[in-house]
Design goal:
Length: 471
């Protein structure tokens, strides 16, 4: 029998220790917000079809993020206002889950290191033990500041917070990670029984354990073997530490898959990035977002890949920034190039020093070697772009951008300006220093510049004049 699963993700807190105007769960770790990382891993849990995000501080920002990224039938938000504790937060989801008969996972939106595998493990343990309430726990050599897992006859009896623990309880090294799996229909009545008679005047989620014990329900803890996965973010220092943990995990996986990484200390790669075997990653490389880096590539040094990048075999990206770009086999980018906004590069293309390419398509065996801007353009095969060539794609008066087309075999001289919309037909040549505003037919020379004049002795005359003025 398949037991359905839904999730409640707590994301209402401000995160005062973050020292930021941004809600804590919207701070990013390797290109994705903390909340996105939690949601993405949660949505992959077996038999899970819905996640409810509990919002609070600057809820509109969290709502916007969720609405932009996720389907409303899969992930939705519920406002907790006022914010009266974790138990109260979960109760905000009751209206949506009132008739649900299955397991509910409860987890925090600031724990980005949890993986789908360990969440599946928790649910499977919960089902196998026929548990009504299971807390994901972890073992820490120094459990200071964590709620202690207190057991009786091998069963979970309660969770005691550090400030309330006696000397014996403080010796317990098994602690609460804040992740729960509940038999929803059996635990649902607990939320109407929660009391706020504590120093914080809040409704604590941990109180549902003692309620369940009194009802004679089956309560358990399940130990998370990799306790680093329970790491919660409460400060910028925590964010830095979590980034290090996540990155080390990712780099190890890539090394095991045959990727060469020259400097683990200066290389940061998102777990959403796949990299083919025999690719070399040089120092000072940052790769964020979702990317597919092919085999036998060379990436870096000093390179930033921001996401949406796909490369084929034997591609080189050196000292450059690349975003939303596909690069074909045996092509080279950099040094000091910038590719962005849906660039498509075919095989054997060279994009060289100080070149910016934006929203353009470049066919095979074409060179854009140096000091050029190619925007909203389509370049054919075997095109050669001379140094300093610019496609002037933007009309500042109409605020419109227009397209430049260079067909196969076109050559542009140095310091050419192609004013869009314009088409340079097959095998045409643009003379150096030209400003081209009209289409150029095939096999033609396009030239637009004033006739050169030499003023004989002009420099000598000017120097004599300056000397006379000084006297």
């Amino acid at each position: 029998m398949t037991i359905k699963v839904k999730a409640v993700i707590l994301a209402a807190g401000k995160g005062t220790r973050m020292k930021s105007e941004l809600p804590k769960v919207l701070h990013k770790i390797q290109g994705l917000s903390l909340l996105e990382r939690v949601i993405n891993q949660t949505l992959q849990v077996q038999n899970l079809d819905e996640a409810v995000v509990i919002t609070g501080h600057k809820a509109e920002l969290v709502d916007d993020l969720v609405a932009k990224i996720y389907d409303a039938n899969t992930v939705n938000t519920v406002l907790q206002s006022p914010q009266l504790g974790t138990g109260h937060a979960v109760s905000m989801a009751i209206s949506q889950l009132q008739n649900f008969d299955g397991n509910v996972l409860i987890l925090c939106g600031d724990t980005p290191l949890l993986t789908t595998e360990v969440l599946d493990d928790l649910v499977n343990f919960h089902n196998n033990e026929k548990s009504d309430l299971t807390v994901f726990s972890a073992i820490f050599d120094n459990p200071t500041n964590y709620g202690r897992i207190v057991k009786k006859n091998g069963k979970l009896d309660k969770i005691v917070e550090e400030k309330d623990a006696n000397d014996e309880q403080k010796l317990i090294m098994e602690v609460n990670t804040g992740v729960y799996c509940l038999n929803w229909q059996k635990i649902l009545p607990a939320f109407s029984s929660l009391k706020s008679n504590n120093s914080q005047n809040e409704y604590y989620l941990t109180d549902i354990i003692e309620w369940a014990v009194k009802q004679g329900l089956n309560t358990n803890s399940h130990i998370l073997e990799d306790n680093a996965q329970s790491f919660g973010i409460n400060s910028k220092e925590h964010l830095m530490q979590a980034t290090k943990i996540l990155n080390e995990r990712t780099l190890k996986k890539l090394l095991d898959e045959g990727v060469s990484i020259y400097s683990a200390k200066t290389t940061f790669i998102s777990p959403e990035t796949s990299i083919g075997a025999d690719t070399i990653i040089y120092p000072n490389v940052c790769i964020e977002g979702t990317n597919e880096i092919g085999p036998s590539n060379i990436i870096g040094p000093n390179t930033f890949i921001e996401g949406g990048v796909k490369t084929a075999d034997n591609v080189k990206i050196i000292q450059s920034k690349v975003v939303n770009t596909s690069i074909g086999e045996s092509s080279t980018v950099g040094p000091f190039a910038h590719l962005r906004d849906n660039v498509e590069i075919d095989k054997n293309v060279r994009v060289g020093n100080f070149v910016e390419i934006k929203k353009s398509q470049i066919a095979s065996n074409t060179n854009v070697a140096h000091l050029s801007y190619i925007g909203d353009a389509q370049l054919g095969e075997n095109v050669n772009i001379g140094a300093g060539t610019i496609t002037a794609n933007y009309n500042a008066l109409t605020k419109q951008k227009n397209k430049t087309i260079l067909e196969n075999g076109v050559k542009t001289g140095s310091n050419s300006v192609l004013v869009a919309p314009v088409k340079i037909c097959e095998n045409a040549t643009i003379a150096a220093g030209s400003v081209i505003t009209k289409d150029v037919p095939e096999y033609s020379l396009g030239i637009s510049r004033s006739k050169q004049e030499n003023f004989i002795g002009w420099v000598k005359t000017q120097l004599q004049k300056i000397k006379g003025d000084q006297n």
